[in-house]
Give the backbone structure.
Amino acid sequence: MSKVRIRFVKLGKIRWTSHRDVARMWERAFRRVELPLAYSAGFSPRPKVSFGLALPTGHESVAEYLDIELVTEAQLDGESGIDVRALPGRLSAALPSGVDATAAEVIAPGTPSLQEDVASCTWRWVAVPKEGADLPWWSTDSWEAELSARVSAVLSASSVVVTRTRKGEELTDDIRAGIVTLELLEPAGLDPSHGMWLQAELTCWPRTLRPSEVLVALDPGLEERHVRRTHQWILRDGARREPLLEAYPSGATDAPHALERAS
Amino acid sequence: MTSLWPQIEPILAHVQKPARYIGCEEGAVGPGSLAGQVAWLLMYPDVYEIGLPNQGLQILYELINERPGARAERSYAPWTDMEAEMRRRGLPLFSVDSHLPAGDFDLLAFNLSAELVYTNLLNCVDLAGVPVRAADRGPEHPLVAAGGHCTFNPEPLADFVDLFVIGDGEEVVGEITDAVQAWKSGGRTAGSRQRLLHDLARVPGVYVPSCYDVAYEGPRLVAVTPRYADVPEHVEKRTIADLAAWPYPKQQLVPMTEVVHDRLNVEIFRGCTRGCRFCQAGMITRPVRERPAEQVRQMVSDGLRRTGYDEVSLTSLSSADYSGIDEVVTGIIEDPACSGQVSVSLPSLRVDAFTVGIASQIQKVRRTGLTFAPEAGTWRMRQVINKLIREEDLYGAVESAFSQGWRRVKLYFLTGLPTETDEDTLGIADLARNCVAVGRRHHQGASVTASVGGFVPKPQTPFQWFGQDTAGELGRKIGLLRDATRRDRGVQLRWHDPKATLVEGIASRGDRRVGAVIEEVWRRGGTFQEWSEYFLLDLWTEAMAAHGLSIDWYVHRSRDRDELLPWAHISAGLHEDFLWQDWQDALAAGNVAGPEGHEHSTPDCRWTPCYDCGACTGYGIEHVVASPTPPAGGSQGTGQDLSRGAEVPVLLRLGARP
């Protein structure tokens, strides 16, 4: 039994599809390239594919992961079997535009699942005032300084309590422990109304903290745009690394100038 | 002509299922320009996940896009949350391919598969920024076109639609494109719209309501008269003679989000001559035209490889009737490329053991429920509707299903059929109960779902003269069935809302005067009437009253032979004599108590002599079937002893009552 971990991106209009939609795209792609996936036994056999953390509908990512299990007989060398290094290219050709595989590696037996292993994610996004929100400080000359002060206040606080709505219920949480880093990058345009690029590393335990919750801590009148997950992180021997060892391919850079929208 | 995407995108975070609005399907044309093209916006007037799989629109989408100088894009009715955001921001209806405003297209072409979407058509035209009434449109506005089964009575929408296409669209779509091309090169000058519509009214299969005057005497329609000498009195439907010449869609759209019928769909034949008297689809799509088996296999294997789907549906009105269905299904299942992971589904299963045999073969991979449509609870009633399923066929099919591992069977029935008595209605409960008894011999947990719909008489069928049951009467019959099945744990009863059936009746056989009602319901916010959460009967009854129209007269009244029906100038090829005689035969079958009722049946003319309904002879075409004999196991009146149709197996007669 061999397991392969794949890194992929979700960019452009297709970011408006759901996590379940993406799972179906992958199932179709695996069938198109005739990858010998292992199937679950039983009444309704499904291919053995396990996805990592769900990406909220509407968010982009250059750091999505999934693990697949191949049938026992599958050979994993380029000569007679599956060339794992060629997999990203083959899969990308079979995936819809906007979803592309960028790396693939065989993972050792016993590797923890993505769900249990990923400890935190790095996000980039633009903060803008919500339509109709009353944010007088945002339109003054000192808006950048004010925003910067609010970021510092969050980081120096020992507790940051925010209220969010989940399934129609109001929940109050202290999110301070979930914010590993938070920084302002640069304004998203010449005018404050275009918003400000932010970057944060947010933990996934005990639950996945979302960029929108961080904005609530800065000002409940803010909302997020152009959210992109840039990294997922796991902990190994006390150090932080990505779920695949392979270096980032050059096409998937996350420098701010490359944040122009794909659509 | 610029994309509206930058304005659409900020809305998407605030609406349900944003993937409805992004396009991005595999097989789609992708963003492009309309410049210099005859531009069609193909519209399904319901939400994306219902509309996207529509095969008619997908066929036309490909045909138009293959044509030099033409481009087709698609649009669907925005859900209510999206519509509210669009109206608030002044955003018009847009295409999902290039996100271009609907008003930039030359034609807005709607598929009409159900009457309850009529108000959505008006809403989409309005969202496009086009006047809803055809008479208010000028040369700057797109043409509003409609096709699909509902256009066999176009009159309720005559005031809103510029042109209707009657019948198969494959050929006529090119002829319309050419006429619109000429209109565009002439500069769409003042008055040119009327000249174009006059030209289109002469294209066979095209009906332009504004070229016809309608006269009434009191409530009765007395004349529908062409306004020009060169416009035909009767508009004959278009029929493609050879399905093999149209292997479409070749690039079936693969949506990025979940839709209904989310699988590969391959049409294996068009038309049906089983002759079920209630069935509009079977009457208006004659004759039967089969796709050659080799082409079916090719379309399936190409389609599976291209799309990555693991399910294929072989579509038609009665797929088990396809000549050699066995071999085709086996070929797909055993194709090494499918590696045992592909399941095949056959919609509209015929009711017999042979069919279940095929079903067990094809659902090896994932066994879902099996559905049969006996349509009526007693043999007498089934003879009236000419759906000649004998009791023993049904129990044989059910026995076969349960013995081969199915635990759940679904049965479709109609209530409110002509001559129906309470005994017939309650026969539905008996039949369902008997099926559970058959199933219990195999599994303790065997269950049967009986799904009951109220019957709506449809234009161009032998039942077009019949007075529909009132909502109260349908409700009473459903009540009888609820009482009769209440204590049967194995029988689950489902039913369609009789109030929605009533509204369907208004639109189904309405005339032009009903248009004002549709408009008023729409103006008062009555969109998405197919969705129970938005359906509002009061809007319809109040609008009927406000316009002085009687529901009783339109819906519940039986018509005489000498009445001019509102759709009489639209022809599906069927002789009125044939339809009337079939209606009389139905009533006669209902009056014969006993086994002789089948003497009034109409056999399937694929395998028995022609009875000249008119569908072939009128157009100089004929059935295209690979086999001159009925399918193995012959059923539904072919090669069977119909005098034994009502016989219930002894075992069931003894043991079925609760």
About this structure: Helices of chain A lie at 19-32, 87-94, 114-117, 143-156, 211-218.
